Amino acid sequence: MGKEVVRQESPNKPGERSRLWFRDDIVNVLRDNTGTGNIEMIYLKYDSTARETEWDRMACKKMTNLKTLIIDDYKFSGGPGYLPSSLRYWKWRFCPLKSPSCISSKEFNYMKVLILDLCEYLTHIPDVSGLRNLEKCSFRECHSLITIHSSIGHLNKLEILNAYGCLELEHFPPLQLPSLKKFEISYCESLKNFPELLCKMTNIKDIKIYDTSIEELPYSFQNFSELQRLTISGYDLGGKLRFPKYNDKMNSIVFSNVEHVDLRNNNLSDECLPILLKWFVNVTFLDLSENDNFTILPECLSECHHLKQLYLKNCNFLEEIRGIPPNLERLFADECYSLSSSSIRMLMSQKLHESGCTHFQFPNTTERIPDWFEHQSRGETISFWFDKELPSISFTFIIIRQHCMNPTVKLFVDGYEKEIGCDEFTGEFGELVGDETLLDNHTTFLHIKLEDYSVKFFKRWIHVEFKLWGYLWLGEVTRLFRNTQMGIHVWKEKSNMEGSVRFIDPSLLQFMPPQKKQRLVEVGVSEKGEEGFRRM
To answer: What domain of life does the UniProt record list for this protein's source (predicted)?
Structure first.
């Protein structure tokens, strides 16, 4: 209805209408130069059937009120040689130009948005100093782009700058963009230097950089003073990320707001880590996975009091962990097979897990389950009984060379089954804190928060059982965990339920000699060798 109303403005002369949507109308106006000052918007959509069309270079000169120009992947042999200063929004995907010279050194005081994405022939971004009110500039995936005029770094109102996927871009000009909120340079594979930051940029909260050749962050990186999340990942091109040396210029307060740091696959060195940890002292999430260049996690890691999640997956040469943050809840060192026995023992210490909120996973082929797990067994199952109130427990297991697909943990509470495998689980009877794949030859520590459903149970001594299950390649279910070590520790101070957990069926107590029965009731656990429970 609206389009028909606009068409009726000038049924036979499209160039005299206020808006143009239809392909033939737009093509005729741009090819034949029949536009007028009435035109305020041109929106040409992608058309796979269209043939390449010429664009009269002066076709827009008469469009003195043109505000919006959108060309979405339409085949033109050329482009405009002139654009009116009234333009506010210009988007041209798959533009055939090498450089949009029509905006160079000209005043466009109203232009807010400039989008030249996916322009395979674009090699140069010209002088844009005349776009002083520009808020968004995007030239993502312009694979031939080589140079960017320095004026782009001095647009005071620019909020979004997107150069994602410009494969040939080697240098980015310095930036003095106080209004910048989003800066994207991921997959600029040839980019070797992070741009110098010439002023404070307090609106930048999140920086993500994937697959570039940037090897060092400049001192001026501190001008992202309100940064909260930093992701730099993917040095498959052989580079190595370095941080400026820590000195008086770089004090730890600079990045006090950063909580999330992801530096996977950056070839970080042992010398780099202490600097990194001093930059981001208040980090709560740290991912150092897939870094093969460092061998030691330094002792200063223990000074990161807010760190709760630490990922070290596939750090193949990591040998020592010398410090553990006091409030760490999740640690995943999957396939870090160079870890020393002393580091593994430290990761299994009771003090480290006494918060009762931990989920750890790390390789282990030498150490057994520690003695502070009161109840231990070998095989695919372990169980306990509780009296009405659900307890808070730590559950651990070491899977030994099973080579089955997708091992999972199943929870049975008085016959009710819940699968609590690789994904975070919140179910009718409990919550598993974790979302990681279970691995062969690894130790897994889980804190299980069993919600209080005591109103559902009207009898004493409810049976809880954990089972490990796996799947063969042919699909049938199998239990292949005969050599798996399993253990349970009850956090009595959290559960406040002294004496209300048993690791042997309470119904069997009536058949035991009084002396043995009393001993089992007092400790709430079978002693080493008793009934085979702790015999490893």
So the answer is: Eukaryota
